Target: Peptidase family M23
Amino acid sequence: MTKTFPTLALIAAFLATPALARDPVLSPPLDCILGETCYIQSYVDTDPGPGAADFTCGTLSYDGHKGTDFALPAMTDLWSGVDVFASAPGTVLGTRDGMEDIPYGSEDAPDVTGKECGNGVVVDHGDGWVTQYCHMRKGSVAVKKGDRVSAKTVLGQVGLSGMSQFPHVHLSVRHNGKVVDPFNPSGTVACGTEAILSGTLWNRDMIYHAGGLIDVGVATEVPDYDAVKAGTAAATVLTSDSPALVVYGFSYGGRAGDILRLSIFGPEGEVVSQDSTLDKTQARQFRAVGKRNPGSWPVGGYSATVQMIRDDTLIDQREERFQITP
Model:
């Protein structure tokens, strides 16, 4: 039997054939625990019209949004320093640093026209795939153009630069210049649970939360919203003569008709409990309820609870335990 072997020409042609392009496998870009120390505020807008919808046809997006926003609960988390990693191996295409961390739209905010991304990094992953990381903290960008990076490489830290109103990193994924939603890379239009996690670019399960609680705390008066967003609203000391006990809830992804159920229970039972119904759909919400000191608060252990309820279903709950001292 005569055996045949490929010619050198055929071997050379085979070796010269480019490998099939593969989708990148992405890691979440923040050094945090999703659902605990960070959360996803907004997804890619899948609505081609003037409206907005995330990949489940939910409300966690806004018109024209081209990325995924990984957010920190409070400004205090920003200043403590949260690292931003490359989502996949690649080469740095470009960087920007030096822009201030000032909320967009505030009185002292700079003009960010043409620099809406703020301080950021762009990474090339090959085969036309690029990721971009926006709104990083001033002075934190730790790579330069031409650097090779892995999914463990620190690119910088979460900030508030550019067109940003809360501390987060905007991750944009593009293929040959076109925006790709890493939760729905095929762009298939599907609504509800069947759209969730059906072939993503992520290297792990990424649970979709259609809204939830960012923070829960207890204060001695209804706190200022800016203090709630900053993470500085909670009382540090509560005594039997504190003027009032107030529980507050800070949430995201709220829809008109959602209920925030706020309550405080102490050694002698219920202190206060109230339902607050949201009258409109908003990216973030803040509600509070409290009771004035009746003369002296009983000393002992207390619990403050906030529940987020949608269509009679509990979608999130947080509890804060605290002590009243003499």
